[in-house]
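Continuing the batch. This is chain 6 of the set; chains 1 through 5 are on the previous pages. Same settings as before, nothing changed between runs. Recording input and output for traceability.
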Amino acid sequence: MTIGVSHRALALAVLEAATPDGKTAAAANACEVATFGEVRIDRTERFAPPIRPGRPQRPELVAPKDTPRRRLSSPEGRAILIHAVAHIELNAIDLAFDMSARFSGEIEDLGLDAAAFVADWFEVGADEARHFRLLADRLAELGHEYGDWPAHDGLWRAAESTSDDVAARLAIAPLVLEARGLDVTPGMISKLRDAGDELSAVALSTIYAEEVDHVRKGVNWFRRVCEARRVEPESAFKRYVSERFNGPLKPPFNATARERAGMPPSYYANADVAV
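Output for chain 6:
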């Protein structure tokens, strides 16, 4: 008997959704369907993702240097910070579901468990959707909404630069970009608390705790892929950073959180690191 809907159809519904509400609902639905075992892992079904995922008309996308500054001493500055993190989370939804559908065939070709791969990234995508909703709600409490300020497009550009290789995508998305979140979020939480914004600090604390697991999933799958290809993971990671990432890794590194995610310092030490 044929089981349920294909994983690629579920992922495509997320990628094509053009509103935050539609995208987060599609992400939650995909994870729920997968949880109850109704997903068909079908590599024969053609996967034709949009060149760019569906997006609302706002926010305006600008160069990183043109995004607004986040002065956490003011209510608006704190709202700008929450908005920037919400934008990252919305992009992260698409990154997770694109990962699950784009690379499941490559995972299977390597002799790895494609169903487990899809399940992991569906779960990550649903987490990111929940994170976005948490931040959107906090923005509303602060008198704003997603789209009120410009944002940059760096995350999806990273996805485009790694669309041909699952190891490259794993290296750059979870092991560089999400791991960077582990480095910087504790400082943001501390500054929000110093400014008396406990509710925003709690929201970021919730996200921070769950992002450790996202990086852990990335590290685990990166290692499995490298082992299947018979390459050494740490040297492969450093090569991908050099070849595929736009710029060096930036210290300071949150060694404690990275270690909990399975990424020892030997991964990022001397990995084209800025000083």
